[in-house]
Here is the input.
Amino acid sequence: MILNVERVVTGPFQENSYLAWQDGTSSCIVIDPGDDPEKITQSIEHHDLNPIAIVNTHAHLDHIGGVSELKTHFNISFYLHHQEKPVLDGYARDCAFFGMTPKETPEVDHWFGSEDLSIGDFEIQLVETPGHTPGGTCLVVNNHVFTGDTIFAGSVGRTDLPGGNWNTLCNSLVKAMKEIPGDFILHPGHGPDTTLEQEMSQNPFLIPLLNRVNS
Ligand SMILES: [Zn+2]
Ligand SMILES: [Zn+2]
Here is the structure.
């Protein structure tokens, strides 16, 4: 099946919110609606889509700012990894740290762990990749991967925010390189799409870990 993916860049952090839908259907999942819920809604309407769930890679403030409003507007459930609870609980504190006014903290309807998610037409394989945050997760749908702030084109997530850990992130990056096929399309939380093949050949943070991938 072909998965259609639309990126909507939102908010002051230029965060990538994504809409994903199977070709020929209108059911869509919303991934990491970070801000500007009206802009995301416009894109949903433009593509004539019917949102059925919001699924997040992690709960940082730049990834959850649109969740509450979209949840209410479309009457849909919000899915988040259970280890993200402390990050979600720190939302107002983190907004203050960045000098931002917090929106409503979204309520989580489904806390997930490592088991794959089945939502409507979507089978979502979860690859837990803690390190940037304690419950950071890569969401694999068909041959597409929503990596949140774990891997970017040319970089990886910062680990200096509460709950971040560099060694944990390195272990997660090795795991991702082992488990996710190199030609799958990666959709990071910021910046352009990439693939693991491409990153493994040029990402300065992944290259030093390559000796651990085949061992
Ligand atoms: Zn983040
Ligand atoms: Zn982010």
User: Anything to note?
Assistant: Residues 13, 15, 60, 62-63, 149, 189-190 surround zinc ion (ligand 2) (CB under 6 Å). The chain has one domain: 3-213. The radius of gyration is 16 Å.
